[in-house]
Amino acid sequence: MRERFNQKQTVSLYSRFSTQKLAAKEKIGSYRDSNGQSVISFVPDYLGLYLENLSFIHLVTDIELKELVEQSDSLNNDNADGEFDSSEGKLTITHARQKRDPSFRKKVYDAYNNRCAMCGIGLELIEAAHIVPHSHEKGTDEIDNGMGLCALHHTAYDRSLIYFDEELNILINENKMEYLEKVGLDSGIRKFEKLAFDKVQIPKNHTLRPNIGNIKIANQTRGIF
């Protein structure tokens, strides 16, 4: 893009909608435009992977790009770091690690009676969710930053599809839904809406309940407010 930056005061950057749709489905997508420029679209989870390989990532082939993402996912599951050999050189794969409290999960399970706070399901599908993400500077392992959620609602919450406000009302993120409709991934939303309570079911013990400050930070972090 350097030639354009040097020649014009205003520069438009864009990517094809079809590539963004592919990235939403496959995590990352790319194409080369008529000027031979490599354009890459990716979901937010891969911003770090993109930035740490900025000098090479636009030179790799589509197959190598897909393999890079797959290796990154594999290393992430193992909580490890590594390198990826491409035809253009080695690319780096790293993952930030935050010290975790091993008792956090048990504290959340006990506080929420092994049930999802958003739908009440148990069935050994409960996960200990962080209200403020653990990777955030204020994302602690304190019980007031935790909540018992089933696997479905935990994923939906972390991906900002669903959230709850300071009055504990459970709401659908309309901005997220608008995006999903544009990329054709909005199927099942009516059924999904019926799976949740109107309000989050919190522990009777007020010391175990979500901190209001954490709710505010969480919604700001997830782009709700």
Structural description of this entry:
It is built from 9 helices and 8 strands. It has 225 residues and is an alpha+beta fold. The protein folds into 2 domains: 12-93, no CATH class; 104-221, no CATH class. It has a two-stranded antiparallel ribbon. A two-stranded antiparallel sheet has the order 3-4. The longest helix is centred in the N-terminal third of the chain and has 16 residues, at 62-77. The radius of gyration is 21 Å and the shape is elongated. The relative contact order is 0.10. The model has no long low-confidence stretch (mean pLDDT 82). This is HNH endonuclease.
Order of helices and strands: HHEEHHEEHEEHEEHHH
**What is the straight-line distance between the termini?**
33 Å
Shape: elongated
Task: Give the radius of gyration.
Answer: 21 Å
- H/I helix tally: 9
What is the domain tally? Answer: 2
List the helices and strands and how they pair.
Elements: H1 2-7, H2 17-26, E1 28-32, E2 38-42, H3 47-52, H4 62-77, E3 82-86, E4 89-93, H5 104-111, E5 126-130, E6 146-150, H6 151-158, E7 162-164, E8 170-172, H7 174-182, H8 189-194, H9 212-221
Domain HNH nuclease: 103-155
InterPro entries: HNH_nuc, MTaX1
GO molecular function: endonuclease activity
Characteristics:
225 residues; alpha+beta; two-stranded antiparallel sheet; 8 strands
Give a short overview.
With 225 residues, the chain is an alpha+beta fold. The chain has two domains: 12-93, no CATH class; 104-221, no CATH class.
